[in-house]
Amino acid sequence: MKLSRRKFLANGSLSLAVAMLLPNSIFANKNAKDIILGIQLYSVRDDMQKDPLGTLKKVAAMGYKNVEHANYVNRKFYGYSATEFKKVLADLGLKMPSGHTVMAAKAWNTATNDFSDSWKQTVEDAATVGQIYVISPWLEDSLRKDYDGLVKFLDVFNKSGELCQKSGMKFGYHNHDFEFMSSLNGKLIYDIILDNTDPKLVIQQMDIGNMYGAGGIALDILKKYPGRFESMHVKDEIKAATKGEMAGGYESTILGKGVLPVKQIVDLFKEKGGTTEFIIEQESYQGKTPLECCQEDFKIMKSWGY
Length: 306
Known about the structure:
Order of helices and strands: HEHHEEEHEEEHEHEEEHEHEEEHEH
Number of helices: 10
CATH superfamily: Divalent-metal-dependent TIM barrel enzymes
Radius of gyration: 19 Å
Low-confidence stretches: 1-30
Number of domains: 1
Mean pLDDT: 91
């Protein structure tokens, strides 16, 4: 489903008005000191591939205090072991409260009724590096074809939440666009995910940009699932000149320059949605360098009080 900008803004404004009328008791208010502002390092993926240490130094110099990884391969973050990467970050005054590692179907061994060694190591290394959240940013296509099979795998999400809790962390899921485009048994994939995961075990990291072209409206989702979104990917979207990266032909852009009411969304989620982690992510750059965009995005978020 595609929405015009006019329809989106109209729906979003209506949702905001309704959400603001909901009793505060169902939401978790957070103080400014509780807020985490960070950057998803996928935003500077090419720079991180070429020179991870040099790129992290530049990110820290911009004023960022928190990063979120998108590279964990063979028990290493950008080529560093968990212990090494924690020291690299600490030396730069950085922390990594969250990270992205896909929990694939093979992470659960049905024969042993237990997680694979690889997934256990993922959780172990996340704890070592100092993460609060272990976020899975994808759902394999094979898991989206059968309702009962998906529900069964979502119980593995809950089990992963239990595993992460043993190390003082939380497990979470990060949406793209397909969750709002595909249905099983008459229910959107996104609704199936939220209806079959325990909020005490699985947090949701809402990507407000990914969902837009597929018809997902952040303010409406908050109204339907209050308090489920401890983390957010803060993005703005613009209609791409060529085929965009997400549904509807959209691509990310500098905050405040696109079609999303970003400040309105993040303010409401902070004040009444229980969101404490706001991760800036920009994947397309419209002629600027990724680092230039990340610096502009950071300044904009700080000007908004984050």
